[in-house]
Prior knowledge:
The chain is mainly beta. It is built from no helices and 8 strands. The chain is 0% helix and 47% strand.
Amino acid sequence: MFLPGPGKSLSAVVGILTNPNSQGGSVVCSVRLGETEIYASPVLHRGEPGVPVSIDLAGARSFFLCAGCAGDSIASDQTVWGNAAVTLSEGGQSAWAICRSRTR
């Protein structure tokens, strides 16, 4: 994600999408600033409630939202970053609509 100004914090609820056509699923959600991982969730499983997170962005202008397999396979690993919002260092919030994402 690329922000319109320095980021103060990221808040969200992370979990796995509940899809009636899928079974199983386990992921670890993480946030990276460059090559540095600054947050990693516990292993999340389908059917469990989402985990609220609040992450210090330390003035970063960009970061990566990541989802990784928790060791069983990638089947049904559909991650959700619900109610995600970035608070900017100068104040105010940046909605995802004004953040730019990039596939690396």
